[in-house]
TrEMBL record:
The gene is bet. Residues 1-20 are annotated as: Disordered. The lineage of its organism: Bacteria, Pseudomonadati, Pseudomonadota, Gammaproteobacteria, Methylococcales. Pfam families: RecT. Residues 1-10 have a biased composition (Polar residues). InterPro entries: Phage_lambda_Bet, RecT_fam. This is Phage recombination protein Bet.
Length: 349
């Protein structure tokens, strides 16, 4: 029997049921079928469903009630969509309720209706780009008020969310065409975003971004620190021969990074490290720098981000000056020119 046969049980809906699903979560083949065909019918990989299972297990949630969504997000580094797991608005409300100080929520207040025609490209179910033009009537904004008990008093927290700023695009940042759900339910989707925003205002330490807000966004939004919640999966590759100099761990073990635990400043530092490394090709220097600069979960996050790009970029390490200090990979010629221009402008000012 092959290795794949030992680790994979019979298939349903084209998604193989990993042995982990049965061993770690006690799922039967019938339960896996429900997850793949009913709960998460758009999931592309078994690993995405395992991520959702991990989230629900840690939070003690019933996954069959769909407290989380699997959201495809575009990765500019990989040049493709990556499946991520984000809490639904129901899960965010559950989180607020568990604090014991959530004191209710008013019905949404709507702004005036606006009609607008969107034209652009989107990817169909076969991942092929299609031209589209659609006219949508939607509320300009929504305001939702959430109440929390603070110092024994019922306090109101209200946030306004604008449709044009919140709606999800079918083609990522390069498209203006709304997704099918935002076309079908323009008020319903905006209402969910309004609730999530107000719940974050009332419970900033407990509540994060909702799946409804992240649908159609890109992983760059997460790296930039504008979104600091949610989880993303990454499969480490066995670099064995060609990549023996990599400092990170190897093996086919999926690692889940909880981005909400990574400080925005760390995210920005890692994003800069990845950018400069990709430009200079200095992979060994980057991994050495990461081990010197970061610790704990920050180090795991940095290594995972470097791994993502190293899988698609040539693993070429230029000759670097040898010294005992760990430094950032060298700037590319373009970056050096930009820095020189900034310095010139600074002196002129």
């Amino acid at each position: 029997m092959s290795q794949n046969n030992r680790n994979t049980l019979p298939k349903t809906r084209g998604l193989p049921m990993p042995a982990t699903a049965q061993q770690s979560y006690g799922l039967s083949e019938q339960s896996w079928k429900v997850l793949t065909e009913v709960t998460f019918p758009t999931a592309k990989t078994p690993e995405a469903i395992l991520m959702a299972l991990d989230y629900c297990k840690a939070r003690k949630l019933d996954i069959f009630k769909k407290p989380v969504h699997i959201v495809p997000m575009w990765s500019a580094a990989l040049g493709r969509n990556v499946e991520t797991v984000w809490p639904s608005i129901m899960e965010i409300q559950t989180t607020a309720s568990r604090t014991g100080v959530w004191a209710g929520m008013d019905r949404p207040v709507w702004g005036p209706d606006v009609t607008k025609t969107f034209t652009g490209r989107y990817k169909d179910d076969n991942e092929q780009w299609q031209e589209s033009s659609v006219t949508v009537t939607f509320p300009e904004w929504v305001a939702v008020t959430v109440y929390r008990i603070v110092g024994g008093k019922r306090c109101a927290f209200t946030e306004e969310v604008y449709w044009l700023e919140a709606y999800s695009t079918a083609g990522g940042k390069n498209s203006q065409v709304p997704t099918a759900m935002w076309i079908k339910r323009p008020k319903g989707q905006l209402s969910k975003c309004g609730k999530a925003a107000s719940l974050r205002a009332a419970f900033p330490e407990e509540c994060g971004y909702a799946a409804e807000e992240m649908d159609g966004k890109t992983l760059d939004d997460v790296v930039d620190g504008s979104v600091i919640d949610g989880e993303a999966t990454h499969w480490k590759t066995d670099v064995g021969q060609a990549g023996d100099w990599f400092s990170g761990p190897t093996g086919q073990t999926p690692q889940v990074i909880d981005v909400s635990q990574i400080h925005p400043k760390v995210q920005k530092a890692v994003a800069e490290l990845v950018r400069r490394t990709a430009a200079a090709g200095a992979w060994k220097a980057a991994y050495d720098y990461a081990h010197q600069k970061f610790k704990g979960i920050d180090l795991s996050f940095a290594l995972a981000e470097l791994d993502k790009v190293s899988e698609v970029e040539p693993k070429v390490t230029p000759t670097l000056q040898q010294n005992d200090n760990h430094c950032m990979p060298p700037l590319s010629a373009k970056d050096m020119a930009m820095n020189q221009a900034r310095q010139t402008l600074g002196h002129a000012a």
